[in-house]
Amino acid sequence: MIEITKVSSKGQIVIPARIREELKLDEGSVVAISRSGNVAMLKKLSVDEAMNEFDRLTDMGKQFADRKGIRNEDDLNKIIHERRKKRRAEGSS
Question: Containing domain of residue 2, as a range?
Fold first, then answer.
């Protein structure tokens, strides 16, 4: 089924009532949205799925920080400062 809707000035879209009813989307329902090319896909998530996704993303962030040697906020600030300095130097060349 295809329904047509518009994007508001705030980037919001209305999910048509029939689709909301079929997916049992109520106020406060949690959804994930992903993109493949010019297609956006929306998936209703349960609280458990949302928490699992949050845990997965947190684990990915921890692994990335470990690989980069980021142990604390000071390490992260140092990396950000160095990258900004490098970009400014490259921009002035």
Answer: 1-45
Query: What are the C-alpha distances in Å from 45 to residues 33, 62, 70, 71?
Result: 10, 24, 32, 32
Residue 7 DSSP label = B
Instruction: Please check whether residues 55 and 30 belong to one and the same domain.
Output: no
Are 54 and 43 spatial neighbours (Cβ–Cβ below 8 Å)? Answer: no
Instruction: With 0.70 as the threshold, say if the pTM is over it.
Output: no
Tell me the pLDDT of the chain (93 aa) as tens digits: 688 899 999 999 999 999 999 999 999 898 888 888 888 888 888 878 778 888 888 888 889 889 988 888 888 888 889 989 998 898 876
Residues 15, 54: one domain?
no
Neighbouring CB atoms inside 10 A of 49's CB total 13
Helix residue spans in the chain (DSSP H): 17-23, 47-68, 73-91
